[in-house]
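Recall the central idea of this unit: under ordinary conditions, the amino acid sequence of a chain determines the structure it adopts. In this exercise we apply that idea directly, starting from the sequence alone.
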Amino acid sequence: MMNFGIVLIIITVLISYRGFTNAFFFDNYKFEVDKILIDKDYKRLITAGFLHVNWMHLIFNMLSLYFFARILIAQLGTFHFLLIYFAGLLGGNLLALLIHKHNGDYCAVGASGAVIGIIFASIGLFPQYGIGFIGLPFSIPSWLFGILYIAYTIYGIKSDKDTIAHEAHLGGALVGMLIAIVIRPSAVIENFVPIMAITIPTIVFIFLIITKPQLLFINTRFYKPQTTNYTEDDKYNTAKINKQKELNRLLDKISNKGIESLSQKEKEKLEEYSK
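Accordingly, the structure predicted from this sequence is:
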């Protein structure tokens, strides 16, 4: 495998390990909506991609990157590989930011958007490439994997039944494939049907997220709103802890930079939390 791919994996593993062992470091670099939109801490859109929740999360992403990066670098070169990787990471996190812009305490970490960008760039260029699964004696063409993955991701965003950042996957996949097509336009002619089968539903779904988000939470026989196991006490205590943490953050900011450093939204929060 190429040197830059290995270097990227090593850097990600080292930074993720630091996040595993240092909660302050993890909190300072993770994706968090209010820290990005209110504090304008835009570095989190990138740094979150070098953190992971646990070893399994990290190993899965790095193994996927290892196998697909070899294909892409051999065909497009290191520069275009890095371009797709970081564009997929940024595109995935920007879509997550758009979807969760009213959910200020939403957090996420992981290189999934970037890795999925690499995978779908490979699919756009080589739709007949076989993708195998550990433990299974057969492989499927990458174009079929792409369609199934997009369908699963759309369902995951709609149902919200797990902690996976599906929207980052969706954004990364679309960005990765589109950039690969821009780099090699002949792929559109050569692989028109599989590319359209993946990109059209993805674009339509993103359009619906932006313009008609209420459609994602309709109670139908195919989808029921998620129920949680939290008791009312759990909800109260969690809200109380989050409120205190936010109040402490605002007070620290005032102490360090003065009250004029607060945005209007932060001043309103401070007034509300101080009552």
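The chain is about 70% helix and 5% strand.
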